[in-house]
Design brief:
Rossmann fold; 5-stranded parallel sheet; globular; 8 helices; about 30% helix
């Protein structure tokens, strides 16, 4: 496996190209397209026998099409006798369905893990899973990267006075605590509950002191931005001077952009684990590049170096 090959589907070719440029190699040649009957066709256009191959494909919108593309690409590489196949999934969709929290519901995050493994993935590289236990759904090695260093460097340069980092719910509190430690700031936690299966939440309480402070909310993804709007409103009611927000995955579905535009949040800082279309970019949305982080991780996996050392 002395030769490194990086391929991409149609989910986010620009990210794959940026990663290939970081690695100093050309992007692997392949055909990935959809027939008129919606069947997906994949053909690898170069020799991958015994090569170390990486397939870059975030499971962004359209989620199910991009997932099937990835599965077929993995199968094509497996049947072409690739030496090792690593699925690089910056955004792991269905991550919220990681447990049975209602009767007679699936654990879809586990199902996706099984599909990837059966399709041919020997390894998974991903970024900030919704729940860390998803790593345990795989019987192959999983490298989970985090963007905390990227976000902390960005906000450290702003030199805020009286900053408080706010976890948007209990589940994200560990990640928020780590960011707070990097910024030498105290931690507050929003207590909220999800209302049914319609993507709505209700904020119940704020645990911690936010009055007369600059609040920085932390989440793993912003989907419809409904939770963000409620969080900003609650923090302002509790006396926060300004509210900033950051997350790893800018899903921005439904009316998210309109909600962010009308929301009094000062700035929303995200990374480009999924594509943010030009028409969805606002002055208050800052997108930080993820390609150097993924490129360095791919280099370290290929050469047998430590991934953990990247974050020490």
């Amino acid at each position: 496996m002395d030769e490194l090959k990086v391929f991409t589907g149609n989910a986010y070719p620009a990210l794959a190209q940026a990663i290939a440029e970081y690695l100093g190699i050309p992007l692997g040649k392949c055909e990935v397209f959809e027939f008129s009957n919606e069947n997906i066709f994949v053909r690898i256009l170069e020799n991958v026998r015994q090569r170390d191959t990486f397939v870059i494909q975030p499971l962004s919108s359209p989620v199910n099409k991009n997932l099937v593309e990835l599965l077929i690409m993995l199968d094509a590489l497996k049947r072409a006798s690739a030496g090792r196949i690593t699925a690089v999934i910056p955004y792991y969709a269905y991550g919220r369905t990681d447990k049975k929290d209602q009767p007679r519901v699936p654990i879809t995050a586990r199902l996706i893990a099984d599909l990837l493994t059966v399709a041919g993935a020997n390894r998974l590289l991903t970024v900030d899973l919704h729940a860390e236990q998803i790593q345990g759904f795989f019987n192959i090695p999983v490298d989970e990267l985090t963007v905390l260093n990227i976000l902390s460097r960005y906000f450290a340069d702003k030199t805020f006075d009286d900053l408080v980092v706010v976890a948007t719910d209990i589940g994200i509190s560990k990640r928020a605590r780590d960011l707070a430690a990097k910024l030498n700031a105290p931690l507050a936690i929003m207590e909220k509950r999800r209302l049914g299966n319609v993507g709505q939440t209700e904020t119940l309480n704020v645990i911690g002191e936010v009055e007369e402070k600059v609040a920085l909310t932390v989440d793993d993804e912003i989907d419809t931005a409904g939770s963000l709007v409620n969080t900003v409103s609650t923090l302002q009611e509790r006396g926060a001077k300004e509210v900033y927000a950051c997350c790893t995955h800018p899903v921005f579905s439904d009316l998210a952009i309109q909600r962010i535009a009308s929301c009094p949040v000062k700035e929303v800082v995200v990374t480009d684990t999924v594509p943010v279309k030009d028409e969805r970019k606002l002055d208050k949305i800052t997108v930080l590049p993820i390609a150097p982080l993924l490129g360095e991780a791919i280099h370290r996996i290929h050469t047998g170096l430590s991934i953990g050392a990247m974050f020490e």
